Hints:
The structure is a homodimer. Chain A has helices at residues 10-17, 19-28, 30-41, 55-71, 80-84, 107-118, 133-137, 156-172, 183-193, 195-204, 220-234, 243-247, 268-271, 274-282, 313-331, and strands at 47-52, 75-77, 95-101, 122-127, 140-143, 210-215, 238-242, 258-263, 286-291, 301-304. The model of chain A has no long low-confidence stretch (mean pLDDT 93). By secondary structure, chain A is α/β, with parallel strands linked by helices. In chain A, α11 links the parallel β6 (210-215) and β7 (238-242). In chain A, α4 (55-71) runs parallel beside α8 (156-172) and α10 packs across α15 (313-331). In chain A, the strands form two sheets. A five-stranded parallel sheet of chain A has the order 2-1-3-4-5, sandwiched between helices. At the A-B interface, α4, β2, α5, α11 and β7 of A face α4, β2, α5, α11 and β7 of B.
Amino acid sequence: MSVPEQVPGEHMAAEISQEPSVLASIVERQSEFADVAEAIAKRPPRFVLLAARGSSDHAAIYAKYLIEVLLGLPAGLVSPSTATLYGARPDLRDVLFLTVSQSGGSPDLIEITEIARSQGALTVSVSNTQSSPLAAAAELSVDIGAGIEKAVAATKTYAATLLSLYLLVDAVRGGKGADAQGIGELAQSTLDGSIEGVQRAVDRYRFVDHVLTTGRGYSYPSALEGALKLAETSYLAARAYSGADLLHGPVAAVNSETAVLALTSAGKGGEAMRGVLDAVSGRGADVLAIGSAAADVPAALRINVAQTVEELAPILEILPIQRLALGLSLARGGNPDNPRGLLKVTKTR
Amino acid sequence: MSVPEQVPGEHMAAEISQEPSVLASIVERQSEFADVAEAIAKRPPRFVLLAARGSSDHAAIYAKYLIEVLLGLPAGLVSPSTATLYGARPDLRDVLFLTVSQSGGSPDLIEITEIARSQGALTVSVSNTQSSPLAAAAELSVDIGAGIEKAVAATKTYAATLLSLYLLVDAVRGGKGADAQGIGELAQSTLDGSIEGVQRAVDRYRFVDHVLTTGRGYSYPSALEGALKLAETSYLAARAYSGADLLHGPVAAVNSETAVLALTSAGKGGEAMRGVLDAVSGRGADVLAIGSAAADVPAALRINVAQTVEELAPILEILPIQRLALGLSLARGGNPDNPRGLLKVTKTR
């Protein structure tokens, strides 16, 4: 069977370009999030647990920050193996259990959701496939609604998952997504406005060997997702640290051969990065500042991102990072649509 | 003022050698853990939160597994910044809040513990300094009892923290630390039995550039701690992944230039590593298997560890990794006692 010739990266490039319209369409569906929030309100949780893997795990960490700060509820990330490998059966009454999975097909996430439900949790799936086994396993489901994603590296589904989680959390606190109005336009202006900066970063990092990504607060998940995106598309051994953890040891391995991608959006997380950037700059690292406050920090290179409330910054700041991963992969001779050895649905147990 | 000449790594070497006796002395103090467990039993928690940074954060993740599996309680890691940067004030009644800090002096951990206590949590400090501000901030305190640690890189305090957390959790479930009897002797036989394997690994990885550490279940924290230890003493850009997460993307960056340090102790976590090791071996990676079941997996090099119940394996398997970090640091011309740019107490906020 002949397969049509594929241009390397065409799917990833197309899917990044679709993000502004995908984000705008999610905001239009605010009433769907309000419906799920209403069902949650009937069983108000005392604690929130989140289960996810890969890019969705980074989205879950973002949601954890939203839940703790905006809802005032303690939240934790689930280690699926405690239940699937070791048979843990915790008492989960009063627990809201959110499973985040773009595909909705990972066996361990389906199993952990079934276990959580049988242990008394209110289970909600957040997925891009409403007919998925995960959506069937959970009591309630949130549709990410990003459309089919062909590239193995998640791009539009990641940004769409972040926005879906934001709108869900905002609806739980009684909001109607007011701060997210216009996020589609802001995404477009971020993509349009970062073309030159991304190209300069692609040129600069063509031969880079050591990449470290870092951010604090809401932007910490962007650092995690950035490192994963670079690892899976450009085969870079990129490491991610929260700005605070970086100073607890790993900074020792930073030197003039290290490229540091630092998330610096306007707000408290970005402000708290100043000391971190002083520390890595003092060790000779090459800093690429990405964010709406990139102009305010010492950096060799900057990529500006449109400004929004701090909670929504991760949705915008990931866009130029995705473009950077795409560009670097192509510059280094890879095909980001089909990284070697990766499948779209990973069947871990 | 003249400072006595210091032999590079003398403190780290001495502190690793002390671990068997430190561990044995902690087991002797089982009644102290029983006392704290009794106080916890008077306010039985529904949910456990853990706060920590650096090596202590890895110990906290270990405790999270213990709490979920052995106590059947949902547990989560706290992101201190949600409270300290963003002002989150969650309702923490029915919450057991464990703050793990070797020094007991990190300002953000003290602040988050004070906030947790004022929000209704039962707060417990787990620290190596009983006169620390952290121990004063928490209602109850657990003494790690590892003695003064002079090297900046934590070694004996890490293993001692793991054992202290194990004995506390075991006491909460009504145990008396039966499985931990003899852990000192097992630590000694692990150190004695791994000298040659560690030396071969030091020789082999003298010029390594890309190191990845991986483990599953209880051994996942050992992978995290191993990567940190290598980064802070040998300045290696080491990355850590759970075996499951590794297959969700980062495996794409694994090739024949990658050294993979894999935790393979007897038990469910080690068994679940087989598929992971097949995947990285298939990509040409150089595998160093460390653990009591190291003989059972395909590897270029193996370091055997004394066998114990799976829950206690992390206390033993970290010992040869610490020796490896020490040996590599010296071989690469560093001084692991005083890594460049690191302080013993990191003052992040």
